[in-house]
Amino acid sequence: MRLFLVFLFLLEGLVANSQSSHFSNALKVKLSEKNNPNVLYTVFVQGDIAKLKTHEKEGAYTLNYSSGNIASIRCNAAALSYLITNKIISYAELPQPKIRPLNDTMVYRNRIKPVKLGAVPLNQPYNGSGIVLGFIDTGIDIAHGDFKDAQGNTRIKFLWDQVATVGPTVPSPYNYGIEWTDADINANQCTHSDMPHFGHGTQVAGIGAGNGLANNTHEGCASKADIIMVAQNFNLPGSTADAVQYIFNKATLLSKPCVINASVGDYYGSHDGTDLEAKLIESMLVNIPGRVMVAAVGNAGHVKFHTKTQCVSNDTSFTWLTNNQSQIDYWFYGDTMQIKNLQISIGANRTNYSDLGRISFKNYNYGLNTIQYDTLKHNGNRIGIIQNSSSINNYGVYEMYVHIDADTNNLLWRIETKGSGTHHAWNFDFVSSGLPTLSQYPKMAYYIAPDTMYSMVSSYQCSDEVITVGNYVNLKRYYDVNDTLRTLPETAGALFGTSSSGPTRDGRIKPDINATGHAVFTALVTGMQANLITNAPQVVAQGSLHVRGGGSSAASPVVAGLAALYLEAHPLATNQQVKTAITQCAFSDFYTGTVPNYAWGYGKLDGLAAMTCGENLVGIKNISRESINYFPNPFNDVVSIETPTPLTGKIYVYSTDGKLMLQEPFQGKTHELNFSKLTSSYSTLYLIQITGEEKNYSFKLIRNP
Asked: What does the alpha-carbon distance between residue 523 and residue 112 come to, in Å, rounded to a whole number?
């Protein structure tokens, strides 16, 4: 009781006497509201930083960090009084507004907030009304308020759990899993849970389509879109294509345009989008108005699991694999013309690098017609059995598959190549560290070390028909569920270290675009709420209904949400028109460097620019994919442009908000654009369109500031 009276007296002194002049209004209000002397606040203070550092223990506060004469501290009311009384600080301020763990940060950083507000030059706000946003993921928390409307009814129109076996409907023609409708969900008949996957799909859906109604925070991108969720069976081949067709079919049933987000993927495969599942998915997208697909690039940008072997002579190049198990699998890929003059052998070394021999070199067609088996022996003792199988798909892509049954676990298995040609391989068993020196093993001069290039996931993410998304850092500081200021080590705006990079195996730019993924806050599976608040409060947002997410999985639905807003404005736009608006109207900065590149694609998502300069792209029926040269880029005043063939037409220069800056005739193969003709330096990013009688071109130019 005595402590409580002391605290009341202290509050009265802080708020009523002269000390209150040293506090911001927000801090004064906060102090007057609390009646617990032990409540801690994170505040900014201004004063003598040297004294602030030396009096930390005596004053019973925590110095978080400082810059100049301003610091962030964690303290209670008594510590504030001590600091003011002893003239260590002259002013204290409760940060207002707080750096919240909100998707508001995400929608601002990706320049989507102006689209949701209908900022000039848009003629209305956009929120995804009339659009279906489909998700292929782990599932969704049907109880979360962000997926309900103002009346409490679910926004989830259909939910197909590909793993479930008990429920009202097995969807046809797939004949597996269980389907629930919005009526089933509203009637509390749906038994689906996203708990087994710790809410991955819930988080993704919250970023793309959450409406923030659970506690009026953390609104996602397309907050009025209808939701269709497919909880994928990751052990079932082909389930992705099934999910794509299911979602598009349901959207057609609803007579609404549709965007699909897939924050899932596999790091193995040819990485060129020529596998049949990818091609099947492409066929559901190409030239069909009102359909878009967006996918995550992957989170292996820091992992050395790729090799590119280029042989120009009969010198033998090699790479080691090991996994301390009795079985090892290896794949490599190349266009047929790239590998037909290569020969492959499999050998082994002990961990002391002594050579146990190899099988004979095999031509590329060794395992084409039938599976081949070879036995590796050393001094008459069997080391292992090697299975070889090869194939060439209808797009001329060659795959060799090697399966090793080893008699000894702790060996370094050697993939050797000689001849002339190129092939790529992806494998998490590659040896990238602890390698011997040349003196220890002279053949290391020919070692092909694994790298972090080509680290994106495979299949449809490598398709030109899918918008593939990388991940950069959303925010650095935020307040958690306990009102504690958290500071992350990463730099907001910078590429997150795990974001996978391109290119595709055949050299195309991927990812297409980057959006915020690391440290984005989104819907939390309600079943995990209590556990996380107790054991990991640092990842739970104020209000306790949202959680910190990350990875390219969280970046992809940002772009998918923007694509939904774009279709709301242009319901008949094709996937290529939406993709062109997003990529050609992106922005670059210090972190991206010159774009396009294999880490950032065409740069950072700019929602408003995509909606505005993108409007000019809707009328372009066929954007040529032929190579067009323009240089220099970035430029100062003059840019030279060269088309593959002569054309007669016009060239247009647009700013990122859709303003026509310059229009000139284009005649022949070359043209010189002189930006000094512009009356003002309106922007550093310009969208260029060239329209001819038969071909059209669209590209982006960056002007040096």
From this structure: 19
Round to whole Å and give the CA distance between 480 and 486: 7
Q: Where would I find the H helices in 188-255?
A: 200-209, 239-254
The domain made up of 2-93 has a fold known as Alpha-Beta Plaits (3.30.70)
Distance CA 377, CA 388 (A): 17
Asked if 26 contacts 93 with a C-beta cutoff of 8 angstroms, the reply is: yes
Distances (CA, A) of 99 to 102, 484, 552: 8, 11, 23
| pTM for the whole structure | 0.76
**How far apart are the C-alpha atoms of 188 and 142, rounded to whole Å?**
10
Q: Hey, where are the domains in the chain?
A: 2-93, 104-300+458-584, 306-446, 620-702
pLDDT for position 446: 95
Q: Taking Cα atoms as reference points, which of 180, 186, 181, 227 lies closest to residue 204?
A: 227
pLDDT digits (tens, 9 = 90+) for 467-482: 999 999 998 888 888 9
Stretch (H or E) spanning 506: none
Kindly tell me if the per-residue pLDDT of 95 is higher than 70. no
CB atoms within 10 A of CB 151: 5
Nearest to 419 by CA among 552, 547, 316, 551: 316
Antiparallel, parallel or unpaired: β 132-137 and 412-419: unpaired
Please give the pLDDT value at position 274.
Answer: 87
* Tokens of residue 698, six digits: 């669209």
Fold that domain 306-446 belongs to in CATH: Jelly Rolls (2.60.120)
How far is it, in rounded angstroms, from Cα 372 to Cα 376? 13
The two tokens of residue 163 are 């793993």
Query: What is the residue-averaged pLDDT of the chain?
Result: 86
Can you read off the two tokens belonging to residue 121? 């030059």
* C-alpha pair distances (Å), 658 with each of 628, 637, 663, 682: 23, 20, 13, 12
C-alpha of 679 from chain center: 39
Structure tokens at 46: 């201004």
